[in-house]
Amino acid sequence: MIQFENITKSFGTQKAVQNLNLKIEKGELFGFLGPNGAGKTTSIKMLVGLINPTKGRIKVSNIYVDEDPEAVKKLTGYIPDTPFLYEYLTGREFLYFTGHIYKMDPGLLKRRIKNYEEIFEMGEWIDFPSSEYSHGMKQRVIISSCLIHNPELIVIDEPMVGLDPKSAKIVKNILVEKTKKGVTVFLSTHTLSVAEEICTKIGIINRGRLIADGSLEDLRKFSVSKEKNLEELYLEMTSTKV
Questions:
Q1: Which pLDDT tens digit goes with each residue over 4-50?
Q2: Residue 188 CB: number of other CB atoms within 10 A?
């Protein structure tokens, strides 16, 4: 479903990502972990076509992002690390706006909006201007807009920031159920407990280089102890100089 092929991204003399090779199968819930500045968000922006690699290519569902970025975007739902809404639009108007971009059937779009309005309990405020929303309220609208067109690939950068525990649990359940239906999820997070709980595969990036990739059991092979949890493995691996 996703393949990073020798991806390098440089900003001047600084290499944010170096020789990234990564393959993620259809239906996987992949957790992408790393310290601040490790290259996670840069990798995500290249995956969704917001920036181009300096070297290498990325393929999504057998489509190279650089060859047909619009085709890849049609398949993808993206949640950035900082939720952005047009402040003079209501949450409902933003969801209609998103649905129209994906050329959704009006009747289906209306039903999907109603569904996510109920799932995320947005009914009391979804028709208020988004300038009045808290961070968590914005995040619920953004997550709904990501899911509204039923994408084959969901790319998420820190989805739980600002969410209350109930909403975070709903998001986790949705992502797990989506992967059971064949949707691929690429999830970047600092919340290691979330990654350990729901991810089927995990990749750890440090200083722009992928240092580990696989299931939790695979990651334990990199450690002397075979009983460590993900947090312990992560701290052990990222404290080692690259």
A1: 999 999 999 999 999 999 999 999 999 999 999 999 999 999 999 99
A2: 24
- CATH label of the domain that carries residue 168: 3.40.50.300
Dihedral sign of CA atoms 171, 154, 179, 219 in order: negative
Segments forming the whole domain that contains residue 22: 2-84+153-238
Classify residue 30 by its DSSP letter. Answer: E
Helix (H) or strand (E) holding 96: helix 91-101
Contact between 17 and 173 (Cβ < 8 Å): no
Report the predicted TM-score, pTM, of the whole model to 2 decimal places.
Answer: 0.93
Pair 96, 172: CB distance under 8 Å: no
Number of independent structural domains in the chain: 1
Report residue 69: phi and psi, to 5°. -60, -30
142 burial (CB, 10 Å; 0-12 / 13-18 / 19+) is buried
C-alpha radius of gyration, the chain, whole number: 18
Q: Are 185 and 34 in contact (CB under 8 A)?
A: no
CB atoms within 10 A of CB 201: 19
Residue in the block written with tokens 């920036």:
51
Q: Which one-letter DSSP state was computed for residue 132?
A: G
Rounded Cα distance between 168 and 225, Å, is: 31
14 belongs to a structural domain: yes
60 phi, psi to nearest 5 deg: -125, 120
Say how far apart CA 117 and CA 15 lie, in whole Å: 42
The Cα 65–Cα 72 span in angstroms is: 6
For residue 228, what pLDDT band results from cuts at 50, 70 and 90? Answer: confident
